């Protein structure tokens, strides 16, 4: 696969824009949400419920994306011809821009591990590599945190203070 063409302008350094689920990609491929020209990212929005006509200016709605739940299309069942394989697809309207956020009720160990993974710019699939890439000092801080004061569930404020103190001592 060749790199995308540039329009004479200098290319910006890559930055994290978000993640997209595999089943959402399968839906996009099945619905053939393609463009002939390279689309402008972060411009398209879903059509409203009153819009009856679908065209290139609108992204698929949540109802379109989740309409086949729980039986999303299999990637093996999607057939694309050679012309369609050369077209562009704008996935930015369907991306989760904040996969590193956690809910307030998330266990501390999961939130801390997710923070470590995000800081190291790795995915959970590379967890073993992530843990191996931590310095001994970071591993000791993690072990020390999880062995201290573990007599029950903790309030969010207490967890936040402890995590801030760990980062401040580095």
Question: Briefly, what is this?
Answer:
With 170 residues, this protein is mainly α. It is 37% helix and 2% strand. It has helices at residues 22-31, 62-66, 82-85, 108-119, 127-133, 136-147, 156-168, and strands spanning 45-46, 58-59.
Write the layout of secondary structure elements.
Blueprint: H1 22-31, E1 45-46, E2 58-59, H2 62-66, H3 82-85, H4 108-119, H5 127-133, H6 136-147, H7 156-168
Parallel strand pairs: 1-2
Protein name: Chloride transport protein 6
GO molecular function, one term: chloride transmembrane transporter activity
Keywords: CBS domain, Repeat
Q: Could you characterize what this model shows?
A:
The chain is mostly helical. The chain has two domains: 22-94, no CATH class; 108-168, no CATH class. Helix content is 37%, strand content 2%. It is built from seven helices and two strands, in the order αββαααααα. The model is unreliable at 1-9 (pLDDT under 50).
**Gap between N and C termini:** 42 Å
Which runs of at least 5 residues are low in confidence (pLDDT < 50)? 1-9
Question: Helix- and strand-based class?
Answer: mainly alpha
- Estimated share of beta-strand residues: under 5%
Radius of gyration from the alpha-carbon trace, in angstroms? 21 Å
For this entry, what is the oligomeric state of its chains?
single chain
InterPro entries: Cl-channel/antiporter (IPR051280)
GO molecular function: chloride transmembrane transporter activity
Keywords: CBS domain, Repeat
Protein name: Chloride transport protein 6
């Amino acid at each position: 696969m060749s790199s995308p063409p540039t329009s004479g302008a200098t290319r910006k350094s890559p930055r994290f824009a978000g993640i997209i689920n595999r089943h959402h990609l399968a839906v996009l491929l099945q619905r053939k949400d393609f463009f002939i020209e390279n689309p402008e990212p972060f411009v398209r929005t879903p059509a409203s419920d009153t819009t009856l006509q679908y065209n290139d200016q609108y992204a698929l709605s949540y109802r379109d994306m989740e309409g086949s739940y729980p039986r999303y299309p299999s990637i093996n069942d999607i057939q694309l011809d050679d012309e369609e394989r050369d077209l562009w697809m704008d996935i930015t309207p369907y991306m989760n821009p904040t996969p590193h956020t956690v809910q307030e009720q998330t266990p501390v160990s999961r939130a801390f591990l997710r923070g470590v993974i995000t800081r190291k710019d790795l995915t959970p699939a590379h967890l073993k590599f992530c843990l191996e890439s931590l310095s001994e000092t970071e591993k000791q801080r993690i072990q020390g945190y999880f062995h201290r004061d573990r007599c029950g569930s903790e309030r969010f404020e207490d967890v936040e203070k402890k995590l801030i103190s760990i980062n401040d001592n580095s």
